[in-house]
Amino acid sequence: MRSYQPDLTPPWKRSAPVPEVPAEPDLVVEEVTTGFCGAVIRCEKTAQGPTVTLEDRFGKHRVFPMEPRGFLLEGKVVTLVRPAPGGPVRPTRTASGSVAVPQARARVARAGRIYVEGRHDAELVERVWGDDLRVEGVVVEYLEGVDDLPAIVGEFGPGPDARLGVLVDHLVPGSKESRIAARVTGDHVLVVGHPYIDVWEAVKPSSVGIDAWPVVPRGQDWKTGVCRALGWPENTGAAWQHILSKVRSYKDLEPQLLGRVEELIDFVTLVD
């Protein structure tokens, strides 16, 4: 008979338990080893164990084993498990406040697109409007700044059946961004923006747990300056994941961003 062997691992070295979360359809998670972020499409039993299929904002599918501590949900490590038969009652509203469409399948992607400036912008739009975008078949892609926007619009070739919407950071009168926007705006191209230096500022300070977003001196990297002023580690990627984890619905965003994104979705889905 095997004798009892006590666990002599010091408490500070033991892995803390993590919550088990049912892999319900449309749940948005990130796989910890690859960083792939997407919505749950389905769970399956395989010879190697249960798997989950995720779909990212570009419609790409990837299959991952449902291993313990294998995913991040709102920035926190979780273990995905197969949902119970029947499952819980689905929400009646999406994160954007729209009426949820039960069992809605993602529509085939439209020819039209929405472009945003960077990855953080795209992740924030996905967090709040992801359900709406999938139902409407709208794909969101991100640029690295707006300097090349005229060439990108020219290559895209917008038209009545392929409208293009663009969301620009810090779109204020007299700025470089406003001049570029004026060059490309037309019947089938809509460029809108918010007044914030970076999309981080579009998240309400109260949702993040701060009084206000710091004022960063000109000439200093804004995101790094924010981290310094708030006493956060100067890791802007980790800071953004913390901020994003606090966004649960449209109520966590400033109206100046909400209105612009809704305007772009309406524009891209409009049929002439």
* Topology pattern, helix = H, strand = E: EEEEEEEEHEHEHEHHHH
Question: Which sheet architecture does the biggest sheet show?
Answer: 7 strands, mixed
Q: Any idea what the radius of gyration is?
A: 21 Å
Major sheet: order of its strands?
1-7-6-2-3-4-5
> What coarse outline follows from CA principal-axis ratios?
globular
What structural class do you assign from the helix and strand content?
alpha/beta
> Could you give the count of β-strands?
11
Low-confidence stretches: none
Give the CA-CA distance, first to last residue: 79 Å
Portion in beta strands: 15-25%
The portion of residues assigned to helices is 25-40%
Q: Whole-number average pLDDT?
A: 83
The number of helical elements comes to 7
Question: Layout of helices and strands, plus pairs?
Answer:
Elements: E1 20-22, E2 28-31, E3 37-44, E4 51-55, E5 61-65, E6 71-73, E7 76-81, E8 113-116, H1 119-136, E9 139-142, H2 149-156, E10 164-168, H3 176-184, E11 189-193, H4 205-208, H5 222-230, H6 236-245, H7 255-269
Parallel strand pairs: 1-7, 8-9, 8-10, 10-11
Antiparallel strand pairs: 2-3, 2-6, 3-4, 4-5, 6-7
